[in-house]
Amino acid sequence: MQALQFTKTGDLASLQHVELPDPVPAADEVLVEVRAAGLNPSDVKNVLGRFPYTTLPRVPGRDFAGVVVKGPQALLGQSVWGTGKDLGFDHNGSHASLLTLPARGVALMPKSLSFAQAASCGVPYTTAWDALERSGVKAGTRLLVIGAGAVGSAALDLAKARGAEVLAGVRRAEQAAELSAHGIPSLLLDQQETLGEQVNAVFPGGAEVIFDTTGFWLPAAVAALATFGRIAIIAAPVDGHVQLPALALYRRGGSVVGVNSLLYGSEACARMLEQFGQWFDDGLLPRPDGLRESPLSEGLLRYREVNEGSTDKNILLP
């Protein structure tokens, strides 16, 4: 099979496009013919050595969509999608033409999605789903999502499908205009000192849940939080430290929820995908768009572009 593989970490030059023997699934596994695989920033960081538990040599890639070609009879020939912490770290991942993983680690794909669209969902949507679940977002919840990248956009769409009152916080006017075109109101973020005032003007009394996808707004978010509110975070400054106004947080009865997609293996992620996947077919979730599809042979270039700051939604096609 063709694959991307790295044999050492620390430099993207170690990632190569290679031919490897076809993997053989174990008794409790499936063999998936990968039709499309998402490229996430964490895949790039993996090659650069940011995850010390990665074993080598390794095929990277967490998100995939494809067809089961070996495994239980009920899954043979089925279109499936998936993601998980095991893929690309201690088990070969999705940036290859074939992939093995536990049979319970795949979910049936929504019929309304293409393979590329399904492959774009894994990490962003399961991360967003976990944030919404663990911070208690439901119908009527006043939710502020800071940042409109892949995870932020997924959180807004999933929360809207749940019936929450959503509000986005973004830095650029063009982001606000794009969100407005999709029926999502937004704030243009300015100074951290004014966030509380901005949010209270839209949500009197504050937001019940604030999801900061950027890593920079946790201290400011406390002033925008409703009584007994929750702040979910998925990132932090490079040194990992922030100055938190603890007095203001506990006076509000507030709490902070840390969200880490690498706590969930492929089986847990498959159960998440099953919970909201039908929403695409029901028209409750918009289908992913703006994807940049590239053959796997151009994967090395796409990795370099992501490392240099590209925000394209890259999909690799074996």
Automatic annotation (TrEMBL):
Residues 10-316 form the Enoyl reductase (ER) domain. InterPro entries: ADH-like_C, ADH-like_N, ER, GroES-like_sf, NAD(P)-bd_dom_sf, Zinc-ADH_QOR/CCCR. GO terms for molecular function: oxidoreductase activity. Keywords: NADP. The keyword Membrane does not apply. PANTHER family: QUINONE OXIDOREDUCTASE. This is Zn-dependent oxidoreductase, NADPH:quinone reductase. The lineage of its organism: Bacteria, Pseudomonadati, Pseudomonadota, Gammaproteobacteria, Pseudomonadales.
